[in-house]
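Entry 12.
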Amino acid sequence: MAWSLLAGLLLGWCVLMSYGLALLGVLALGVLVVARSWRPLPVAALAAVALVLLFAVAGFRLWDAYPVLDQRYWDGIARVRPASYWLWGDLAALLISAGPLLGAGLASLATAWRQAPRVVVVLVAGAATAIVLADLSRMSKAEVERIWLPFVPWLLLSVVVLPERWRRPGLALQLGTALVVQHLVHGAW
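Predicted 3D structure (tokens):
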């Protein structure tokens, strides 16, 4: 139960640090599915809520701050980019920041999910669900290469189903892509 308390406090802290990290709760549920145990859930949920409420008492009310942030965003760069742009633009930025093997890994996992390890299927599905929810809710617009970064390692678990012969060249491709993106792509925000 001590680990459940710590996990809940960390999730509550993540929610307070970034609105997009609230979706880590989906991954946490995936971990519980893999572990086949729901016992930690009440303690973790209460700890997360308690931390958010503690900050509310101290003066930071998450539910009051988000609408202000959202309005500031739509008053800024969103004036020149319609909301529909972010539905596909965010996913493209995620794919670029995760590297070219992510697409291959997700496609392989989608076609061979019955043969893949259960833990990989559940955790990748949890990360993909969190990304889809974030994208459709329009809660995270732009800067997804930063905001969605915590979900990338979970999505990249999908590459374990790729053939063995892809691994070394794939790692080199990932590294090369990361260097090219880091040195050549510059965002305005």
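Annotation: Residues 82-189 form one domain. The longest helix spans residues 118-137.
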